[in-house]
Structure to design on (349 residues):
């Protein structure tokens, strides 16, 4: 077993292909082709059959001899043009196949920013950038003092989140924070599920700004007793209870999974009498939720109902057992720091 991502392997394979392409180019007498350019040619022609690839190679090399100063991007476009001429149906099939994997991905960075990446059709990408750019240029011509890049980013947020202004508060941000932080009596960080901890001041700012932005900022306190006590006769979790469990768990409860929660799962299955309650509920990612159907994978609640944190015992098909503990709610810090001397911080229990 490799015990690592397949990505390096894919890269190695691609480099090997690239070297092959470089060798191929040198054989036919093109000396100034570097690895990067060889890689472009390999990638753009990878879906072609061998005979077509040879024809494409020959056409590309002719083109390079004719236009030796082509930039990498221009080269890629030339190769694509040649490929479309050779087999436009295959090219269409390749686009369709790639587009089936369209998606949006979000990743939080350590400095408090985050990247939202959408993989969409190229013409949609062009439409998005043209629309954002036109609006940004108009704002600049009207005296907007932000940089063009800042305006584009702000418009991106406004349009995707449906906000009147990028500095407003998101339509719905789940914010978990201790009552003391809300009241300004403590600077214990709040938490936004899917992002992680946020500074206490920012949590308070989000709440203060929320009525002005006419948005619903759901406030969930660490001591929401009535929600904890909720129990339902239904086999599916009512929305409030499901939301609570997702906020309690924040990430998939499978040990080491780390994915955000997508589904609320009965730890003891409803079909064998498991109740629909906070105690018998857990947040899982989509993949792990389907995996619970495995006959030899067992989840059992081991914590007592009112004892925090919520804990389950996960027994894998191979027989190994792990404790899965919900993260501690904000407001009960295990670590507190006091300044004992100027510049010297000491941890107290
Ligand atoms: Zn998972």
């Amino acid at each position: 077993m490799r015990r690592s991502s397949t990505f390096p392997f894919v890269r190695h394979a691609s480099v090997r292909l690239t070297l092959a392409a470089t060798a191929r180019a040198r054989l036919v007498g093109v000396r100034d082709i570097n690895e990067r350019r060889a890689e472009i040619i390999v990638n753009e022609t990878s879906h072609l059959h061998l005979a077509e690839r040879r024809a494409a190679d020959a056409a590309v090399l002719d083109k390079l001899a004719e236009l030796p100063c082509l930039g990498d991007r221009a080269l890629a476009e030339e190769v694509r043009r040649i490929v479309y001429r050779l087999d436009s149906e295959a090219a269409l099939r390749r686009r369709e196949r790639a587009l089936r994997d369209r998606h949006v991905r979000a990743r939080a960075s350590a400095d408090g920013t985050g990247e939202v990446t959408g993989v969409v059709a190229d013409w949609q990408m062009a439409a998005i950038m043209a629309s954002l750019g036109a609006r940004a240029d108009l704002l600049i011509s009207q005296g907007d003092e932000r940089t063009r890049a800042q305006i584009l980013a702000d418009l991106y947020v406004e349009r995707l989140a449906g906000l009147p202004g990028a500095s407003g508060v998101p339509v719905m941000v789940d914010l978990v924070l201790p009552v003391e932080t809300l009241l300004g009596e403590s600077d214990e960080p709040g938490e936004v599920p899917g992002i992680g901890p946020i500074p206490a001041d920012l949590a308070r700012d989000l709440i203060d700004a929320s009525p002005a932005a006419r948005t619903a900022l759901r406030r969930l306190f660490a001591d929401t007793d009535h929600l904890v006590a909720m129990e339902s006769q239904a086999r599916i979790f009512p929305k409030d209870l499901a939301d609570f469990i997702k906020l309690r768990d924040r990430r998939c409860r499978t040990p080491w999974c780390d994915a955000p929660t997508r589904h609320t799962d009965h730890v003891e299955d409803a079909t064998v009498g498991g109740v629909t309650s906070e105690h018998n509920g857990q947040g899982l990612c989509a993949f792990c939720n389907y995996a619970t159907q495995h006959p030899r994978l067992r989840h059992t609640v081991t914590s007592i109902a009112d004892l925090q944190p919520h804990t389950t015992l996960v027994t894998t098909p191979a027989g190994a057992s792990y404790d899965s503990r919900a993260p501690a709610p904000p407001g009960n810090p295990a670590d507190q720091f006091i300044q004992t001397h100027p510049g010297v911080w000491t941890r107290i229990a």
User: Anything to note?
Assistant: Residues 252, 254, 257, 259, 284-285, 287-288 surround zinc ion (CB under 6 Å). The chain has three domains: 7-99, 104-161, 225-325. The longest strand covers residues 103-108. The radius of gyration is 27 Å.
